[in-house]
Specification:
mainly beta, four-stranded antiparallel sheet, single chain, six-stranded mixed sheet, about 50% strand
């Protein structure tokens, strides 16, 4: 399984970004996919998860601001991020949940 994240960038406080995680391999549609993030000097932390049946879970810090969605036909998971804050600045990674498969990450920087 290969995962490729895209969509990161520099945005001002209150702005929005949409991240994409494109996956290869036949296991995508049957697996939960998660987003994590890692800020400088901090441990990687869970952000959001979407199951194969499309049920979702979010970290408290992003509830109401971030939305995760998937398109199984395109083997892609999206993370819509609204009302961004400086503390959202991090490298964002996608993961086949519970597996050792990770993407290379995409940088999100929110300026104050």
């Amino acid at each position: 399984v290969q995962l490729v994240e895209s969509g990161g960038g520099l945005v001002q406080t209150g702005g929005s970004l949409r991240l994409s995680c494109a996956a290869s391999g036949s296991t995508f549609s049957g697996n939960a996919i998660a987003w994590y993030r890692q800020a400088p000097g901090k441990q990687r932390e869970f952000v959001a998860r979407i199951a194969s049946g499309r049920s979702t879970a979010y970290a408290d810090s992003v509830k109401g601001r971030f939305t995760i969605a998937r398109d199984n036909a395109e083997n892609t998971v999206y993370l819509q991020m609204n009302s961004l804050k400086p503390e959202d600045t991090a490298v964002y990674y996608c993961n086949v949940f519970g597996s050792p498969y990770w993407g290379q990450g995409t940088q999100v920087t929110v300026s104050s």
